[in-house]
């Protein structure tokens, strides 16, 4: 398994070196079914698949946390005046899913540039912390045992982790750093919504 991975890496390095030299010789591209110039299409397809997986997984997990929170909450006999309305929950769900999808795109861009492997403490850890806090927010605030104060702590963790993501991703790819900034704004907006439910 390791030998096959090493051989694949060697082939990619050789192909990259031949493109940099300007020589598109077929000797640099080896393997049983490899054709010169055919590697770009498969590489771009793999890149698009990994991008789609990263964005859709993050968005789906966020939507699933809202779905689980709404089904775990029992309808109260008399609704509290501070409870979130259905329209508020719908707006928060849409904003959270969009924010997580854009942040996943930024994380994917940092990963594609090699930043996740080169700087995991500056990229991967803040992203995982932000995603974890975002997934915990809906069950804490909208679930059966609503705890808006814990939700505010989640919002603070989301904002701090999103700032760390913007810095870490920005060091790898400036566009990825800029894409992480709306997650900071969303965490602040979510904190305001959460504060009104106290």
From TrEMBL:
Main localization, broad class: membrane
Membrane topology: Multi-pass membrane protein
Locations listed in the record: Membrane
Residue span of region Disordered: 1-45
Membrane spanning residue stretches: 89-112, 124-143, 150-169
GO biological process: tetrapyrrole metabolic process
Gene Ontology CC terms, in alphabetical order: membrane
Keywords: Membrane, Transmembrane, Transmembrane helix
Alphabetized Gene3D superfamilies for the sequence: TspO/MBR protein
UniProt keyword annotation of Oxidoreductase present: no
InterPro entries according to UniProt: PTS_HPr_His_P_site, TspO/MBR-related_sf, TspO_MBR
Family of this protein: Belongs to the TspO/BZRP family.
Protein name: Peripheral-type benzodiazepine receptor
